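Attaching the record inline, Q. Sequence:
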Amino acid sequence: MTLTSKINGKTKKNKEFKNILLSVEPEKEHYYTLSEKTPFSDEYITIVRNELADSQRSSLLGTAFDYLARFRIAQFLKREDVVNGMVAVKGFKKIRNYRLRESGEFLEDEYCISLGKKILEFVNDSTKPISSIFEEAVRLAKFDQINRIRVREGDLNLDYLLIDSAPHDIVGELDKLMLVFEEKFMIPEIITQKSKVVFNPQFGVGSALVDGADADIFIDGTLYDFKTSKDRTLKKNDNLQLIGYYLLNELAIKTLSQFDFKYIHMDIKRIAFFKARFGEIEYYNVGERLPYADVQLKQKLKEIAIHFKGKKIRPPHMFADLEEVDQILEEIRNWDT
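Structure, as predicted:
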């Protein structure tokens, strides 16, 4: 049960959690754009048309784009840690275990390691074009999707996952989308050599409580979500997901100092969508709308802690101090707001 599945879930508990987020849902009118166009409006100009045949291909394209965008930023910053903690690795392990059970053959980790090496070669060589790792990004996207969905083992197509080349239509659109990304996102107003960047950020205890929550990227106080949809509108669940990340991050900060939950500190001032097909960025100043001194934010953190009371947390490793985590969460539950 991840943050996304909790927002989309139909159980009573999921609806209770969603209601916590709904009470602080960002209003459309409070977003603004870097281009000064009206957010989520017909003022946006479509630069890259969606010509993919179905939603499954569109989903694969979106995940591949997420990886490519992070890899391009890593190349700009010379940051090899972009390959750390990739969700795709978990998907690869699921495929590896399936192959072992089905055929008795062990899929060597070198397969996945070789993908990582190609990514690092790109990151460390500024002369390499982003197109040189399109195949690798699509492969990682396939692994990523396998990890995020429940599939019956018999449904795993190993040729598709491990051998088949990236579809030509997806590669063609990735090429166009990355040109837009270079022009509209890789600019000094958004990122510089001195920027603080967290790749694929997670939210410590907050992520553990929802059994998984990871965003696209954090840059200089802004948490970005990359979107390749042709839809200009603000989707409610996307909106709730971003504000959910913000709240989980605030909870992570409150339970940070003594525990290792693979959390990198982020002071999130803004949440934002980058609409790749339009080259538009929509910002929401969550730090102004929901500052920590505000009683409402403290109340939301309290409600989340209460909601997950009794939840058995799965730590990233055996050395995490769960007893003290529970103690701090109990203190939050008893806050006087």
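The longest helix spans residues 55-77. Strands lie at 32-33, 197-199, 217-219, 222-227, 270-275, 280-284.

More tomorrow.
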